[in-house]
Structures are given as C-alpha cells and as structure tokens.
Specification:
The chain is an alpha/beta fold and about 425 residues long. It has eight helices and 19 strands. A hairpin with a 2-residue loop joins strand 2 and strand 3.
C-alpha cells in the first residue's frame, strides 16, 4: 500500500489554486515516488535558467532556479517544473545563526517569497538554501542553522501544504546528516550536490539515518577538489571523452538505477570555476559540448541525428598524463590533439594558452576568467608548435575541436614556465 509522507490531512482535500494538483511524495514498496499532477514524475533536470527551450527539446522536465517571476514564467511556458531556491544565508558569507533577529528576518523573507510564488504553475518544490553548512576549509558550522532551516520549513508548510520542502547539502562531513535527521523533522526530502562520490551516496545516507527520499540537486564531472594535481597545485581536468563517459556512467549507475527522485545536471550554461570549461555544457556563443545531447539520449533513449565531436587526448612533446610539464620561457614545443566526430563531420581546431586562474575559496564565486595570451600559437591544426610565455608561472594549453553544427569538445593541460 502506498504511504504518503508529504501531504497533510487538510491537503488531501486538494488546493483550489490556479496551479495543478498538489505535488506528492509516496513510498511504493521500498522506493520513493514523486507525483506531479497525480502522475509519476522522475526529475530530468538542469541547473541554470538559460537555453530552457533545449531542455524541453532534449527531453528534460525540470529546472533548478530562483524565484524570479520571469524565470518561472519561462519554465512554465515550456511545461518545465521548478525546484525553487529560497535565499537562506550561510556562515561563509558572515551570517550569524546565533543572531535571532537576523534569523527571524531571513525566515520572514522566505515566507514572503513563498506566499507570493506558491500558486505559480511552474513551482514543484522549495529548497531552503544551498550547502549552508559549508565553510571553506571544512570548518565547523553552527548546528543552530538546522533549527532555522526546520523553522522555515514548518512555516512554509503552514501556508503552502501543496509543495514539498527540502534543503541542499554537499558531501563534505556527511555525519551532519544525522544532525539533520534529528533537528529537521519538517523537511520532506533532502537534496545533495555530489560529484565523484555519487556512487556511494545511498549507503552514506543510510549510514547516518536518512530514511526519507532524496534527489541529486547537482552533479557533473569529477570536481577539481577530487582529481590529481600538479606539483604546483593545478588540478587535471577531464578531457571531452572522459567527461562524456563520466556523465553517462554516473547517470546510469547512480541516478537512473538509484533510489532517488531524479537529478539536476550541472551546468546548463558556461562559467568560470578553476577553468572556463570545467563545468560548462555550452560556451559563451551557445555552442554545445557533447554533454547536452548525451543528456537527450539519457532522458529519452534516442540518439540525436548529429552529435558533437569528442576530444580524446592532448599531449605536449613527449610528456604523458599526470607528469609535471615544466618548460623554459620563450621555448618552442609541439602539441597534438586526438579527436573524432561520431558523424564524420569535418573538424576544425583552435588552440589557446591562458594563465592559470586565481582560484576562489568557494564554487568559483568572484573568479576571473584568464584571457588567452596572443602571439604564442599561429596554427589551427591537430598538431601544432607553440611558444611558451616569457614570464614564470602556471599556465594551461587549451584545445577546442569544432564541427560545422555549432558543437565542440575541449581538453587542456597545465604546465609551468620556470
């Protein structure tokens, strides 16, 4: 028999709002199931508010966005459901959860947003904050934060019993889940941002006592905090091929077959975070990497008629992967890329050398994208010669492989000029 964990008795009378039927979470056997408009709904979502037409075209059904009306309207026009981020502050930005007045004002702001937004047909569920527990350096956080989250959840459900309420955590210090179980009984589900540790997530949640449903609120390639680094601390980014395989494996082994309500892939746009290519599924000209059409195949089971090229590897001289590449200033070297196109389309190439970014302490916030250094590369082939910069420091050699259909793949290698 199905067990409802979300709807309060009064909500069973159904809401007379302009939105559809109340969103429900039910237990079916040993699995949880999300119901939207009284129909099973597995979340095939993206993080981001751009290119939403492509989300719909490629078979997606949900977006993780804020509460701005124009964003919700756009999602609603396309028939996409929204996980709405509500603005709860974190201690990493200086918020003090011992300050009862500040916490009260924050809750009041959240309730104001919910009251003004709850009847929008695109709203599917509410999320209170994002990784509120994380302080750079994995420093201890104030556990009163969870009390504030639960108070907000309780207040939300008092005025809107029709949409589930959650918060989103990262996977550092996962013993915090036991504290959430204890302090946040009014949460209906949990959202987790997870990357390399996505495969062990169900066991970890079970270990710390989480028995309610969960969704994967953010996932993508292996993170820069999880991969090998050079001697000078530059992380090795996955190549186009490695990302393609990584995304598919994570979806098939940890999302599609996992006991979760679905997921939101990161990042359905482009951004600078360690590099300008690490998480970006598009470039600044709206050209696609192989990843959006991979998601189309995973969401729909159908291959797109034309796929992006894929970069398998890039090499400098005779250096091999994970070998520190230390070069002299102003010296000339060789580079080679191996790439292919699934549809045999012609491939053109672009090479760049950029300084290594000055890393941000959290999620790339405030990071500036280093710009290419001109005059070091004068070729656009699969094999080139390049000159190293004259100044000592950390750099990356980037290569991009383009087809004729606004699609591309990329890879890069860090090197040091001594």
């Amino acid at each position: 028999m199905n067990q409802k964990i979300f709807l309060l008795p009064l909500a069973l009378l159904f809401s007379l709002t302009v939105s559809a039927q109340p969103v429900e979470i039910r237990k079916k056997g040993n699995d949880w199931q999300l119901l939207v408009d009284q129909k099973p709904f597995f979340i095939k979502g993206v993080v981001g508010h751009t290119y939403l037409e492509k989300v719909k075209e490629y078979g997606g059904n949900s977006v993780r966005i804020g509460s701005r009306k124009e964003e919700l309207d756009k999602a609603g026009q396309l028939g996409l459901k929204a996980m709405v981020n509500l603005p709860a502050n974190a201690e990493r930005y200086g918020f003090d959860y011992n300050d009862t007045d500040a916490v009260k004002k924050q809750t009041e702001k959240i309730i104001e947003i919910v009251r003004n937004t709850k009847d929008h047909p695109a709203v599917m569920m509410w999320s209170i904050g994002n990784e509120l527990d994380y302080i750079p350096g994995t420093k201890p956080f104030n556990p009163k934060m969870w009390d504030a989250v639960n108070d907000a959840a309780k207040a939300i459900k008092a005025i809107d019993p029709n949409h589930p309420v959650m918060t989103v955590i990262g996977t550092s210090m996962m013993e915090k889940v036991a504290d959430i179980v204890k302090r946040c009984p009014d949460l209906d589900l949990l959202g987790i941002n997870t990357y390399g540790d996505i495969y062990t997530l169900p066991e970890t949640l079970k270990k710390y006592g989480w028995e309610k449903p969960y969704l994967i609120a953010e996932w993508g390639p292996d993170g820069y905090w999880e991969v090998k680094r050079t001697e000078w601390g530059a992380p090795y980014e996955q190549t186009g091929r490695e990302k393609l395989n990584c995304y598919e494996q994570k979806y098939r082994k940890a999302i599609e077959t996992g006991n979760c309500l679905g997921s939101y892939v990161f990042y359905w746009y482009h951004k600078q975070e360690t590099t300008h290519t690490w998480f970006s599924m598009f470039d600044e000209k709206a050209q696609e990497t192989p990843l959006p059409k991979l998601m189309k195949m995973l969401w729909t089971g159908k291959r797109d008629p034309n796929l992006a090229p894929v970069v398998d590897s890039v090499n400098i001289d005779r250096f091999v992967r994970y070998q520190d590449i230390v070069l002299k200033p102003g010296s000339v070297h060789q580079a080679k890329v191996t790439a292919s196109d699934p549809d045999k389309d012609a491939i053109t190439y672009l090479w760049e050398i950029r300084p290594e970014a000055v890393y941000a302490s959290y999620a790339g916030q405030g990071e500036k994208e280093p710009q290419p250094i001109s005059g070091l590369i004068n070729e656009a082939k699969s094999e080139i010669s390049f000159t190293t910069p004259a100044e000592k420091g950390a750099y990356r050699l980037f290569v991009y492989a383009f087809d004729v259909n606004n699609q591309f793949s990329t890879a890069n290698l860090p090197f040091w000029v001594e």
